[in-house]
From TrEMBL:
InterPro entries: 4Fe4S_Fe-S-bd, 4Fe4S_Fe_S_CS, Cys_rich_dom, HdrC_iron-sulfur_subunit, Helical_ferredxn, NarG-like_sf. Pfam families: CCG, Fer4_9. The lineage of its organism: Bacteria, Pseudomonadati, Thermodesulfobacteriota, Desulfuromonadia, Geobacterales. Residues 266-295, 331-361 form the 4Fe-4S ferredoxin-type domain. Keywords: 4Fe-4S, Iron, Iron-sulfur, Membrane, Metal-binding, Oxidoreductase, Transmembrane, Transmembrane helix. The chain crosses the membrane at residues 69-97, 104-125, 145-163, 175-191, 203-221. This is (Fe-S)-binding protein. GO terms for cellular component: plasma membrane. One of its GO terms (molecular function) is 4 iron, 4 sulfur cluster binding.
Length: 662
């Protein structure tokens, strides 16, 4: 009778499980095509590193606890599989395996079950006592009931496991009881307690069975579906850092960006089912931290909810009724949230299952700009200035080379000049950034580098346009720049600005232009290494230096050591580090086109970053980006700390050279 009842329940649950998984994952096919099946060897390597190795999970202090739960789940899947099979076919069990292997498995099951129970208790304590805010439910106030239910399920499974096996051992029916140390202790306790061992065994067996069946049914309906999708999502993850976005085809009647959920790619939709809602992206996001309406976790959750709501209609060729972009509500992203993103990439760096949140936001921006013509009012001037005069301020192109008036600067000539110095808009027009340009030109001349400029023929690279979603204007400017570079025979480029660096190096590849692009800090560090710039490490006029990692230099282009190398060569000591630095650095607030927008909601991002840097009591804040320069100087003034200097890394070097000459 027990076998018949259990078999009926199990078959029903498996059918429900299969139907539920199909119902959800079939919706992924509504997404647009995207190539994620290339380089299977490398993809397998990434999957083992991030999914099975839990590389990003264990970077956080509590990550080890999840590591234990994950691997316990993998190991105990064998034990639970045997339980299910044995429940239907009582004659089949792991006892049929060779004795040595059987005993090894029983030891593993016993020990791992105990470790899992400890890990679950710690998880309960964390959620009830520690209560980290990122674990709050997105749309339900307080802790997530679903998370508590899953933790309770796992705890019950472990307790039932020990109750069942302890009772069997106490009855003398386990031939290899010595391979089950924890269950043996439980057996001794049950014997001492004088309980009905048959009843304990029967109740534990059914608790174990019903919890497993309930888990099978509940899994595909919950956020814990990531148990099924996270591993393949790591396999399909981006093999290169997604520092750019796909091009668009501009033709009559075409749709631009993503205004409804089926306009995302299949991988975007698969991401939404892989989100663990762990909150790591939320904890890293500068917009979320400073009280903006953007929460990367919520963006991904909204995509999933929207897909589940609209999916049936979309499969029938009808339009969905729940808007992807609109007023606040589950399954919808607000415009304020979409425009709050600084595209710093902290969310992608933090995500343990390689979800790509930032590109999804840019895709929705494209829809707002190109299809709806809806964007913050202050961007209108930016777009007009870019289109008419190819710079954010709308200054006449003839003004681009005015910074060279006191320096011997030559135009770039193919075959005669090695490097094109791509000055960029800030380095050409911003009064503070022009000082950095002069410092760089001085250093390059001192090192004997062959370089030249385009002067008035230089155009904006279009970084802000692309990140703000104005792909049409970016496309136009990129094509013009590519044509100029090809006509002039440019092969090597030096940039002052990380935003120019990432655009010329990464975005322009989509236009068939392969350039060797280096940031000034990389080139200078290399010149120091080769002995073309000689320093004695004695420059102390800048006092204690704290270095701020620009997002577009660090996370987006993996350049962390070069600026630090320069500072150390000049001063003789490494710069001080803020609490968040390197890959975990905190954004200045200017990326993603936010340089040209006001912050009306929450705290200012640059204030939060400046506060972190001031905690180190620096005399100088060193940057390697003109946007960061502006944000740091403004933030220090607002915080009443204008006495702290802000210097670009090349200015630090220039002062070191000046000191040496003196």
């Amino acid at each position: 009778m027990q076998t018949a009842i259990f078999t009926t329940l199990l078959v029903a649950s498996l059918l429900f499980f299969a139907w539920s998984v199909y119902r959800r994952l079939s919706l992924v096919l509504l997404g647009l095509p995207e190539e994620r099946f290339d380089q299977p060897g490398r993809r397998l390597s990434e999957m083992f590193l991030y999914a099975f190795g839990q590389l990003r999970v264990i970077k956080k202090p509590f990550g080890l606890n999840h590591f234990v739960i994950f691997w316990s789940f993998v190991i105990l899947a064998i034990a639970n599989g045997e339980f299910l099979v044995n429940g239907v076919f009582p004659s089949l069990s792991l006892a049929l395996l060779p004795e040595g292997l059987h005993r090894a498995l029983l030891v593993a099951f016993d020990v791992v079950s105990l470790l899992t129970l400890f890990a679950i208790v710690l998880s309960f304590v964390r959620r009830i006592v520690v209560r980290p805010p990122q674990l709050d439910s997105l749309y339900v106030k307080g802790r997530s009931p679903e998370a508590f239910a899953i933790l309770a399920f796992i705890a019950l499974l472990m307790l039932a496991y020990f109750g069942m096996h302890g009772a069997i051992i106490a009855q003398g029916r386990e031939a290899v009881a010595s391979a089950m140390p924890v269950s043996t202790v439980v057996a001794a306790w049950l014997t001492h307690a004088g309980v009905d061992l048959t009843l304990v065994e029967r109740v534990s067996w059914w608790v174990h069975a019903l919890v497993l069946i309930a888990f099978i049914c509940f899994l595909p309906l919950s956020k814990h579906m990531h148990i099924l999708t996270a591993i393949p999502n790591c396999y399909f993850g981006a093999l290169e850092w997604p520092a750019t976005q796909p091009r668009e085809t501009f033709e009559k009647g075409a749709e631009y960006g993503v205004g409804s959920v089926e306009r995302f790619t299949w991988k975007d939709l698969f991401d939404s089912f892989s989100c663990t809602e762990c909150g790591r992206c939320q904890s890293a996001c500068p917009a979320s931290i400073t009280g903006k309406p953007l929460n990367p976790r919520q963006v991904v959750h909204a995509i999933k909810t929207n897909l589940l709501e609209n999916g049936p209609a979309l499969k029938e060729g009808r339009k969905g009724t729940l808007p992807l972009i609109g007023n606040e509500g589950e399954g919808t992203n607000t415009e304020d949230a979409i425009w709050s993103c600084t595209t710093c990439g902290a969310c992608m760096e933090a995500c343990p299952v390689l979800i790509e949140q930032m590109p999804k936001i840019v895709k929705m921006r494209r829809h707002l700009v190109e299809t709806e013509s809806k964007f913050p009012e202050e961007l209108l001037n930016l777009f007009e200035n870019m289109e008419q005069r190819s710079n954010p301020w709308g200054i006449a192109p003839g003004e681009r080379a005015k910074w060279v008036s006191t320096l011997p600067v030559k135009p770039f000539v193919a075959g005669e000049t090695e490097y094109l110095l791509y000055v960029g808009c800030a380095g050409s027009f911003d009064s503070r950034a022009k000082q950095v340009t002069v410092a760089l030109a001085t250093v390059l001349n001192a090192a004997g580098v062959s370089w030249g400029i385009l002067g008035k023929d230089e155009k904006c690279c279009g970084d802000s346009l692309r990140r703000l979603g104005n792909e049409y204007l970016f496309d136009k400017m990129a094509k013009e720049n590519v044509e100029i570079f090809r006509e002039r025979g440019v092969a090597k480029v030096i940039t002052l600005c990380p935003h120019c660096l990432t655009t010329l190096k990464n975005d322009y590849r989509q236009y068939g232009l392969e350039l060797e692009v280096v940031h000034q800090s990389e080139l200078i560090a290399d010149l120091i290494k080769k002995g073309r710039i000689k320093l004695d490490g004695s420059e102390k006029s800048l006092g204690k230096i704290a270095y701020h990692d620009p997002c577009y230099l660090g996370r987006h282009n993996d350049i962390f050591e070069a600026p630090r190398t320069v500072v150390q060569a000049v001063t003789g000591s490494a710069p001080q580090e803020a609490e968040r630095h390197g890959r975990n650095s905190f954004c200045c607030g200017a990326g993603g086109g936010r340089m040209w927008m006001e912050e009306f909601i929450g705290d200012r991002v640059n204030h939060t970053r400046v506060d972190e840097l001031l905690a180190e009591n620096p005399d100088t804040v060193c940057v390697a980006c003109p946007y960061c320069m502006t944000m740091m100087e403004d933030g220090l003034k607002d915080r009443g700390a204008a006495q702290v200097k802000v210097r670009d890394v090349v200015e630090v070097l220039a002062e070191g050279l000046l000191h040496k000459k003196g």
